[in-house]
Fold this sequence. Notes:
Helices cover about 35% and strands about 15% of the residues. It starts with 9 loop residues before the first helix and ends in a 31-residue tail after the last strand. With about 425 residues, it is an alpha/beta fold. The protein is built from 14 helices and 15 strands. It folds into two domains: about 5-210, P-loop containing nucleotide triphosphate hydrolases (Rossmann fold, 3-Layer(aba) Sandwich), CATH 3.40.50.300; about 220-385, Rossmann fold (3-Layer(aba) Sandwich), CATH 3.40.50. Strand 12, helix 13 and strand 13 form a beta-alpha-beta unit.
Amino acid sequence: MPFSTLGLRAELCRAVSAHGYDAPTPIQQQAIPVILAGKDVLAAAQTGTGKTAGFALPMLQRLAASEQPARPKSVRALVLTPTRELAAQVGQNVKDYGSGLRLRSAVIFGGVGINPQTNALARGLDVLVATPGRLLDHLQQGNCVLDRVEILVLDEADRMLDMGFIRDIRRILALLPKQRQTLLFSATFSSDIRSLASQFLHQPVEIDVSPRNSTVSQITQVAYAVDKGRKRELLSWLVGSNNWQQVLVFARTKHGANRLAEQLDSDGLKSAAIHGNKSQGARTRALEGFKNGDVRVLVATDIAARGIDIDQLPLVVNHDLPDVPHDYVHRIGRTGRAGRDGQAISLVAPDEIGLLRSIERLVNQRISPQVLPGYEPSPHAVQAQPDSRPPMRGRPQQGAGRRPGGPSRSAPRGGRG
């Protein structure tokens, strides 16, 4: 099924084709005709299903069909996202898909200078992609008005609720006209999401392409049992021995992400950390370095990773298991995107077995920790299944990760990353 069969105009079909997409994904097949018809949408779609194009393409077409240009300081379509990285990614997609249309778009988020954003808002925008906090700053300063918004998109609404943005969202929505089209996208239809939808959506069409609490079927999930103090050592060896060139690693804390990136860098693996305490410039540089291959290992916290959108990311590693099982689903959804195969590896310390069991119940899948020779956890600390096969192919390369069982000379053997 080509995109043209969904009712999209030629300019949009050419744009998606230019970016390598020939056929729509299930979320796009279901959402695009409904949005083109002007109906509200409540959609459950996991990361990597193509949901951004699912709302951006019909949104751009509806805006282009109108003969009413954006007035100074006004906004015609507003897309709210939970993080800066996701806002930047969505904004770039809107720009790419709308390259053949005469529409103005901009992205605003915190951590960068406000003056260029103010100038963009002053001209008026057809599409504004924003994080809630920075948008409220501009609204309070009178830099923009929202009384002419025709389309509102709440992207990754579940994460915005998790991050405590509900009050900001309510303040923003109170400034929008009641007569509008509202599109809400979430990973799952939780009770909180349904409650939010009942308040802000009008007779929405429900679209669910993600079975509740399931993980993407193309992702192979593996767990290795290891003492907490040897996690970084094992991670370094895995990366080096397999010659992995692009690895996204999740750490539980900002400090832990910094420390782990520094230690891996000392092991000869070019690494960088990305989290909320980093400046926006540092986060952008780290992400770009990871995408272009200059950075081999990117260590991220859950919030910072929400905007990482790499179509062919082959591997995700949980250095620390998340405290909230749903975050595991979000994490591993960074790989196995757009129908491609992916792998998710979790390093499980003895005190994290309870977290692993909660994850198993959520995803309805057994993920029994294996033991790698040379990295056996302390006796009786964890019930793991020995791996009798050679766990990995290849050998560690000089300066690119350590062999199992050997002490590190380049970095301290610490606790949790």
